[in-house]
Each structure stands twice: as C-alpha cells, then as structure tokens.
Amino acid sequence: MTNFPSFRMRLFLAFWGLLWVVALPLILLYIRRRARKDAAYGQDLRQRFGLHSQRLRDTIWIHTVSIGEFRSAVPLIRAFLDQGETLVITHFTPAGRRDILKIFGAQIAEGRVVPVWVPFEYDLSFRLFFKAFRPRFGLVMEVEFWPRMIASARKHGVPLFLCNGQYPSKSYARDKDRLRGQLVRGFAGVMIKNDVQADRFRALGVPDAAIRMTGEMRFDQPIASGLLTAADALRNQWPGARPAFTIASAVEGEDDLYLDAIARMLADADAAGQPRPRVVYVPRAPERFDEVAQMIKARGWTVARRSEVLNADLSGEVPHDADILLGDSLGEMYFYLALTDRAVVGGGFTPKGAHNVIEPLALQRPVFVGPEIWTIEYPALDAIKAGVLTQCADADALAQALAPSAPVPSESQMTAFFETHSGGVARTLQALPGLLDHARSQGITRR
Prior knowledge:
This protein is of the alpha/beta class and 447 residues long.
C-alpha cells in the first residue's frame, strides 16, 4: 500500500485540523458576508458540517468545486445516470450549485442527483457525510487537493480518485519537494490528461498501477443547440460582412490590454476604409459586469449589454451602431462564441494563467490566448502544434493576430484536432473498474 499518510503528513493533518477549529469563527463570518451579496452562501449551513437528514446507499460521489469543474463533469454524470446510478455532487460555490440545479433539475426531483455543499475540512464532517450517503467511491474533478477530504476518504475506506486531473507546471514546480505534493498519494488512483501529467504524478509517488491516461472530458461536453440557434438568428440580423471576435472570460487586470487591442483594430479599419469589427466582450466574473461596462464607455465607445437588449430567450436586437456587445450573463458562453468568427480566451495575460479553450475549439473557432498557458498545458500545447491556437505576447500581437487578413486554420484542421482529443468519458468509464480493483487490493474499501 502507498505510504499515506506518512508521519509528517499526520503531523500536518493534525495542525490542519487545529487550524480549521481556530479559524471556524472567521470562516462563518466570511460566509455571512458573502451571503449578503449572494444569499445562497448562507443556505443549508449544516451540510458544511456533514449533517444530512437524507440517507442513501451505494451512491457515486463527485466533487466539483464550481462551474468550470462541474461543466467538465456533466458528460460523465450523464453517463452514470444512463447506467442507473445515484449521484451525490458536492460543490463549494453557489454558482456551481445553481448550475447543477439548472442542468439536472429533473434528476434532482427524482432523487437520482443530490447536490450538497462540500463538508468543511474536519474528519467528523466527512465521516457524517459518508454515513449519510454511503458512496462506493468518489471522484474529485481537476485539481482539488483538499488534505482532509483525501485523508478522511482513505481513513473511512472510500476510494477517492482524481478525475480529469492535472498538476499544472507552476504548481508542480512549487509542490514537488514539499509536503503538499505528497497529498496525491492519498488518492486511490488518478485519471489524468496526458503522459506529461502521468510523469508528474509518478514523480510525486503515485504508483503506475494507480495511474490512467483518460484525456480531457471537456471535449465531450454537450452543446445546447438553443444557444447556437439564437446566435445564428442574431447574426442574420447584422447587415454586411464584418469581421467579428469574442473576448471570453476576461479577468481583472487584462481589460486595458484588450481594450487597447480593440482600439488599434478599430483605428486600422477606419484608416483603411474597411468595416469595423464586431466585438463581443464577456467578463469572467459577474461582479465585474458594471465595472467593465464603464471602462468601455470611458473609451468613448457605445456598449450594448446583453441583459438590456436581448430577452431571456436571447431574442431581440443589438443596435447596429454598438461598438461592443457586453456579455453580462452566465451559462451562455456558447452563444457569445457562436456570434463571432474568432475567440480570445482570457486569463493568459495575467500570472494566474489562461482559462478553458475547449469551448471555442468545439465550435471550430480559432483561439487566441496570452503568454501564460501553464494552467491549460493540455490541450493548449497540442492545439498550438496543430495550428488551431495562437499565443500573443501583448496587445499589438493580439490585434495583428485578429486582423481580417491574418491567416486562420482550415475547417479540416479544427475538426481533426477536436476528434483526436474527444472520448475522455468513455476512457474514464473504462478505467474505473481496474482502479477500483487496485484500490481493493490496497485495502481501500468501504468499512
């Protein structure tokens, strides 16, 4: 059996538990303050301590911290439901909870999907959670390495697997010689995206028998046809052939760079007597919608806000003289991407790194990002090699890459790349039986 937890890890877990006890008043105060802006933060507080009146058996537990992780898990959740499974989905943010309710409302009503807050980092909270739902195994999506979650699952015999997993390069370089890097040894197995990730987990002490390369499940995400239909209807209203691009998931700290690039493109079009490009601008965080609208207006441009010019079903009309359509809504990214011909994905012009590029690739839109792609090494490096993703160093490079005369990949290139990288859900389902057998051989079974 993998040596987990080691003596040093036991000492750390004791300190970690004490820290959570001491910090509990501050944690509750934080939740209360967040609840003033979003009441959902304060709901069902007892669930955070593992307290549930509901009792289930033989469930599958999936942890998705927020929207991004949940969206990556959706096709896998659907596959489990098709197999007749009952799922408990834990989440950390209200945004994630709302998405679960929106997508799986019918299954929740049937009792086949149960969304709950993830327990606080106390062993007792997880023990009560396991008692309430009796999961056969758990799946943690992406990069969630919570010490007590991992240790309690191991302690109480719940095989916990990292799913769609990765260890980003900067995090790996920071953690590989530290105690935090040893946390991955507590997983019963890891299902990761490519061989680079496999090498990293091996170096951190995960045995070969507990590693499976399953790819990226976001390539299997379903696309709501209604969003694409609405985008087509709106595009048909726009007169004339004009270049168009979407800036998706723009984060704080890079707005000025994007606005500078837009200013250059507008000026170049005016100087050449060509049509101005249509721009769709989608901030990543909803609390920034108003701020970004003011930044656009401060440039002297006209902004049309989706919430003001379009109806709930996305019907309506965007004024033809609007310089920028501001995407001030959640859950409609495919609509914003389908409105335009090229996509810029945010985050890459900040040290925190770029966000998900798979959504525009799924729509066969050429993608442009900043220099910081360590968060999306897979599939970004493969996409760059295939010629369907471009890194830009600054605003000038971005403006040049988005120029109408700039080359773009062919449709066949886009299709081939996407088809090559799909199938992660099937590979995950195929990997699970072997990983469960390995977990049982290591004595990691539900007591």
